[in-house]
Amino acid sequence: MSDIADVSLAYEGVKRIEWADRTMPVLRQIRERFAAERPLDGLRVAACMHVTTETANLIRTLQAGGASVALAASNPLSTQDDTAAALVQEYGAEVFARSGTDREGYYRHIHQALETGPDLVLDDGCDLVNTLHIERTDLLGTVKGGCEETTTGVIRLHQMAREGALRFPMVAVNDTDTKHMFDNRYGTGQSTLDGIVRATNTLLAGKTIVIAGFGYCGRGLAERARGLGARVVVTEIDPVKALDAALQGFAVQPMAEAAPQGDVFITVTGNRDVIAGHHLAAMKNGAILANSGHFDIEIDVRALQEMAVEVHRGVRPQADEYVLDDGRRLVLLAEGRLVNLAAAEGHPAAVMDMSFADQALTCAWLASAHETLAPAVHEVPKEIDNEVARLKLASMSINIDTLTADQEDYLHSWRIGS
User: Would the annotation count 101 as a binding residue?
Assistant: First the structure.
C-alpha cells in the first residue's frame, strides 16, 4: 500500500512526466527494447531515489522490462507529490514518499519499500542498502544485486566492502562517464545555480562564489558561475584537483581564507562540516549558503543554529535567514539539503536521460550476471556506457568516425614500429 500525499494530483503528474519524456530519447528507446525483451520479468525492484519526473520515466522503463517497482524518496525536499501520485495512480508503481516528511517518515518509507522483498535495489546515497544491512538482514538472502547513483553512496559502499560487510554485488553507476561527467558536470552545474537564483533572485554577476570541491560537480559549477560573470574561488583537499582548478584560472584557497570573501558558498564534496562554525563566524553580512552534495551535513547547520539569536524561516521559498549576535545575517538555502532539487527541479531531463539509461541497462545486466559477481563494488561494463553515449549521439543527429581495419590492426599490434 503506497504512502503519498494526494492521489488527486496524478493528472498534473502525468503531464509533467510526459513532458520530461520528450527530452529523454535514450531511455525511451531502452523502454521500447525492454517491452519486447522483458529482461526483468518477475523481478521485484526496491528503489530509494529522488521522486521526480525523470525518475518516473526510469520506473516506467523497469516496468516495461517486467519488473514490479517500489519507490521511496532519497530526499524529502526533492519529492514531487504530483509525480508520486501519477506513479501510483497511472503507472502502477508502489510509492512511499511525501514532500517535506521528517526523518522518521523518511526511514519508514525506506522500510516500506523493503517490505516488498526486492530482488534488485537501486540507491541514491546508500541509505536503503545501509538499512538492509543493519536493520533488515532477514531480506538480504533474496537480493541479487543493486546499483548506486551517487558519489556519496559509492564512497559508503567501498567502505562496507573494505570491512567485509557488503553482502551482495553493487554496481557503481555513478562512476560511468555518461553519468558522472555529464550528470555531475552539466546537470549539477546548471541546476544548482538555477536553485540558488530561484530561492534568492540574486544577481550572480560580480559576486564572489566559493565552491567547495572540484570534482565533476565543482568543475561544472565553476564553469557556469564564471560564465555568468562571477568571481570563483575553489577550496579543495586534493592537490591534483586544486592544481586543475588553478590552471583553469580559478582562485584556490583554504575555506578559512575564502570565508570572509564569499557572497555565495556552495558545497559539493560528499563530506561533512566543510563549512564549519569558525567559517560561519568569519562570513560577511548577507552571505548565501547552499549545498549540492548529497546529504545535509556539508554545512554545519547545527553550529549555525547555535550561533543565531534569531531565525527568520521562509524569508523566501527555501530560504531561511539566521541573525547573529553582531547583527550579521546569513541565508541558508533548502535547510542545507540539495538546493538544486529542493529549490529548483533538479537536473534537466536531457541529462538524466543518460544517467537513467545507465541504470536501466545495468539492472538488466545484473539480472543475468549476478551469480558471477562477488559481494563487492563493481564497475558498469564499458559496453553499457558506450551504448548509452552512442544512443545519445544518434538522438542528437551526430555521427562520428569508425576505425578502418588497418587502424584496428595497428592499435592491437605491438609488432608495427614507427
Answer: no
